[in-house]
């Protein structure tokens, strides 16, 4: 059973709270909003980036203003692992990202927000900005074909710059645990420091700040912060912090902990998103069944007269040619729009 959103909370609290961020911090511009269907099952498919799903909630507000429809976001497990975040996500209409939930919403004629890149897009390094990651196995395309939902591709430019990811303290290692981290190279992104080095740098950075502001001589600082005699204490502290971080990540299902120019070095201040200029483009809607039939017909040879064969109608949502072809087409359209927008913009922060 899918929980219904609290529409009064959405209209009177959620969207008004997001408005300053949308209008004055990111200065979001929506183009092509008239292409959003007025009703019926609709699947909004967009690129994903920015380390935190800020792009999803900004898109939810933009599309609601234009169409009056609430975008029911398909969210990852992390959103439902945190008590406060889980309650908020449910109130604003988000549901756990799975095929059954999407099917139920589409059968009810809802507008569903899908970000097929998932964590691969959300957490990609800044060097890969605006390069679309894999769209999974085409599950969104199969779901749209099965339920006759209109697919509306959407491109989002600006979200890549809010938290430029330089690397990650760990990536994909929550399942390995602390001991697994010591023997596996999967625990850190390319070009990023291993967990030990990253946390040691963080600990020493804190110690440096304390030392610079201390009124006592450096030689009087605690042994753990200075000198070779504190090596054992420092190592123990680093091991403790690392194990705590990984334990929390495993429990919450967090796939990575990013490092940006400001986070985690500046703490909470480093989590403030940069004020990039956003543009959201709604592209031409796609009737998935019509598109898939035409695409499949162009690839498959028609049987010779009298050749017989199976005359049963093709179940397009079970046909790999149709599903993967449709998913690739949606991805191609979004990528092309991203590149055109990037070519025309003068600055990420103009």
Explain this structure to me?
This protein has a seven-stranded mixed β-sheet, sandwiched between helices. The chain is globular and about 75 Å long. α4 packs parallel to α6. It is an alpha/beta fold. It contains eleven helices and nine strands. It holds the Pfam family Acyltransferase. GO terms for molecular function: acyltransferase activity. It comes from Corynebacterium freneyi.
Core attributes:
350 residues; alpha/beta; seven-stranded mixed beta sheet; two-stranded antiparallel sheet; 9 strands; transferase; 1-acyl-sn-glycerol-3-phosphate acyltransferase; acyltransferase activity; P_lipid/glycerol_AcTrfase_prd; acyltransferase
Q: Give the C-alpha Rg.
A: 24 Å
Q: So how many helices? A: 11
Spell out the helices and strands N to C: HEEHEHEHEHHEEHHHEEHH
Mean pLDDT: 81
Poorly predicted regions: 172-198, 212-216
The biggest beta sheet is recorded as: 7 strands, mixed
Q: What is the percent of helical residues? A: 40-55%
Ends distance: 45 Å
Broad structural category: alpha/beta
Secondary structure tally: strands:
9
User: In what range is the share of β-strand residues?
Assistant: 5-15%
Strand ordering within the main sheet: 1-9-6-2-5-3-4
Shape summary: globular
């Amino acid at each position: 059973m899918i929980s219904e959103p609290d529409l009064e909370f959405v209209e009177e609290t959620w969207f008004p709270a997001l408005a300053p961020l949308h209008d004055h911090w990111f200065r979001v511009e929506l183009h092509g909003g008239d292409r959003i269907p007025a009703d019926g099952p609709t699947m909004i498919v967009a690129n994903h980036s920015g380390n935190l799903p800020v792009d999803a909630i900004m898109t939810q507000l933009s599309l609601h203003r234009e169409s009056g429809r609430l975008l029911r976001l398909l969210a990852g497990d992390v959103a439902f692992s945190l008590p406060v975040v889980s309650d908020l996500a449910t109130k604003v209409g988000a549901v756990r990202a799975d095929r059954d939930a999407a099917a139920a919403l589409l059968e009810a004629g809802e507008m569903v927000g899908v970000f097929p890149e998932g964590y691969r897009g959300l957490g990609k390094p800044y060097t890969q900005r605006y390069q679309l990651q894999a769209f999974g196995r085409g599950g969104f395309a199969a779901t749209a074909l099965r339920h006759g939902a209109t697919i509306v591709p959407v491109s989002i430019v600006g979200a890549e710059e809010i938290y430029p990811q330089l690397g990650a303290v760990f990536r994909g290692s929550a399942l390995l645990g602390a001991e697994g981290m010591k023997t596996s190279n999967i625990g850190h992104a390319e070009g990023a420091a291993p967990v030990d080095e990253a946390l040691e740098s963080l600990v020493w950075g804190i110690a440096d700040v304390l030392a610079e502001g201390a009124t006592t001589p450096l030689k009087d600082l605690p042994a753990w912060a200075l000198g070779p005699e504190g090596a054992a204490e420092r190592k123990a502290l680093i091991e403790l912090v690392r194990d705590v971080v990984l334990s929390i990540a495993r429990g919450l299902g967090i796939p990575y902990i990013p490092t940006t120019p400001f986070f985690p070095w500046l703490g909470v201040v480093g989590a403030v998103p940069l004020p990039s200029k956003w543009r959201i483009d709604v592209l031409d809607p796609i009737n998935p069944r019509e598109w898939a039939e035409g695409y499949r017909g162009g690839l498959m040879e028609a049987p010779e007269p009298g050749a017989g064969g199976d005359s049963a109608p093709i179940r397009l949502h079970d046909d790999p040619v149709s599903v993967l072809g449709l998913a690739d087409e949606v991805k191609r359209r979004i990528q092309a729009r991203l590149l055109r927008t990037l070519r025309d913009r003068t600055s990420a922060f103009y």
